[in-house]
Amino acid sequence: MAELETRYVFVTGGVASSLGKGVIAASLAKLLQSRGYSVTIQKLDPYLNIDPGTLNPYEHGECYVTDDGAETDLDLGHYERFLNVPTSQDNNVTTGRIYRNVITKERKGEYLGKTVQIVPHITDEIKRNIMLMGTRHKFDVVITEIGGTVGDIESLPFIESVRQLKWELGYRAMFIHLTLVPYLNASHELKTKPTQHSVKALLENGIQPDVLVLRSEHDLSIELRKKVARFCNVDPDAVVQSIDVKSIYEVPIKMKEQHLDEIAMRKLQLPVKHDADLADWINFLEKQKNATKKVHIALVGKYVELPDAYKSIIESLNHASTYNDRKLLLDLVHSENITEDNIDSKLKDVDGIIVAPGFGQRGTEGKILAVKYARENNIPFLGICLGMQMSVVEFARNVLKFDKANSSEMDHSTPYPVIDLMESQKNITNMGGTMRLGAYDCKLVKGTKAFEAYGKELVRERHRHRYEYNNKYLADYEKAGMIASGINPDTGLVEIVEIPTHKWFVSCQFHPEYSSTVLKPHPLFMAFIKAAITNTKK
Ligand code: GLN
Questions:
Q1: Alpha carbon distance 243, 63 (integer Å)
Q2: Which residues contact 277 (CB under 8 A, 6 or more apart)?
Q3: Segment holding 45, helix H or strand E
Q4: Burial of residue 510, with CB atoms counted within 10 A of its CB: 0-12 exposed, 13-18 middle, 19 or more buried
Q5: Ligand 1 center–CA 300 separation, angstroms
Q6: Active site includes 498?
Q7: Residue 469: CB within 6 Å of ligand 1?
Q8: Catalytic: which of 385, 394, 409, 495?
Q9: pLDDT along the chain (538 residues), means of 10
Q10: Helical ranges in 109-257 per DSSP H
Q11: Which of 60, 63, 513, 522 does the annotation list as catalytic?
């Protein structure tokens, strides 16, 4: 059979940001995948940073890391959680990367004699990056989400590029535009004018949307959809509503009810192979709905005002709770506000404690207190990255009695740098993309809780950090009761520590949250939640 020519779906947004383009893209991708197509999703981000790795979480939420070590937008996390297929650096492209590539080529003389311009040089580079998902990665369907909203100055080159691609690809490309239909309480009315204006803005840029997805807090009548269809030149059945739902994982089902997959297949002339097979997905949703008993977890971190900073951890906890037939009750506990006097009131009711990743000194003393509380009170504990490092520091100070032990990230002159900069990091001065990034092997020690959780000896997990467990102290730790249960087989770096005498105390240097998906919850989160359940207070 001839190879299918890759189809391209471009998703734009209008009226407001944060309408959930990523979730709509992921939902359509899920539906097409469940019909037997290989699908990927790509995000184009209009900012000038090369990647979000240098951004503060307050600016941009969590930085998601792929197997190949790309620091990317958090939407890629949704893509992987929905599709259960790894993404890569090619799935996230920023304006900064595009300009860097073009300017590098210019310096090499690849455009010799020519004036280098936004059109065609920047737009060609954007087009090349979109097409790569088909030409290099060979997906049947590529869904490209364009960050920002239509009308923004900074997203114009992206919009112009996909306009050109549609012209070149014909039926192999289509546009989905997501807008907001606000409800005016005073007059009890849903308003379509912002959508009409937003489509007008797209049309001014030469783009006719094929499908409109209208985000709304209320049901949209057939009449209203017909009106939008008429004003915006789209088929009435291609006006789809996206109503607020309890869980984002319900969105594919909502989209299926409105035949979004069939509409897309019709427009893209994709043959119907078989009906969507969503049995496993629906099983997850049923479990989520039917769980009545709760598991109460505290997530201790310094970005708790902004839960998006911990998106993947929260989703991983959701997956694991659901598969353990529990509803997740999550307390986000601000590490900066924890003191010896108030810690009991903050943590006494929880069944399990997670100490979150992070950078810099702020809030670390509170994290150390939270570790101590979990350790001393035998509360199931999972430390992630900085959370792992702080559990190592806590053990040094309070069990090994290493006075003023610390990570050298927090205290340059600590007498006990139990967490220290790797030799290979010492001469690095550039901040962007220079951490230990991406997937590394980890060998588990038989008989440990980590081994029991994974059920195998060799695993691969994603990293994003500069500092490491200092092997100089390993013997002291193991003698005093904190063992290394996961080691990098190539470098000897300690990747997991645990306390065998504790109910469940496991800390990992890597980020398990990046690889938990709806259909494949992460083993460490599963084991942590299981332990927390046995500890359930009420
Ligand atoms: N700040 C620590 C380091 O760089 C931990 C990083 C993290 O938690 N992602 O090693």
A1: 27
A2: 34, 35
A3: strand 39-45
A4: buried
A5: 15
A6: no
A7: no
A8: 385
A9: 85 89 96 96 95 85 94 94 96 97 96 94 98 92 95 94 97 97 93 95 96 95 95 94 93 96 96 91 97 96 92 97 97 96 96 96 96 98 98 98 97 96 82 89 98 98 96 97 97 97 98 98 98 82
A10: 123-135, 156-169, 193-204, 222-232, 251-257
A11: 513
Residue 392 has a CB neighbour count (10 Å cut-off) of 25
Mark whether 160 is an active-site residue: no
Sheet containing strand 505-508, edge to edge, reads 327-334, 294-301, 352-355, 381-384, 505-508, 494-498, 483-487, 436-444, 458-465
Q: Tell me whether residue 385 is one of the annotated catalytic residues.
A: yes
Enumerate the H helices of 291-420 as residue ranges.
311-323, 343-347, 364-376, 386-398
**Structure-block tokens of residue 83:** 């599709």
Residue type, 154: E
Ligand 1 center–CA 464 separation, angstroms = 7
Alpha helices, H only, 434-473? 449-454
Q: Which residue's CA is minimally distant from atom 5 of ligand 1? A: 386
Report how far ligand 1's centroid is from the alpha carbon of 361 (Å): 11
> 438 CA distance to ligand 1 centroid (A)?
13
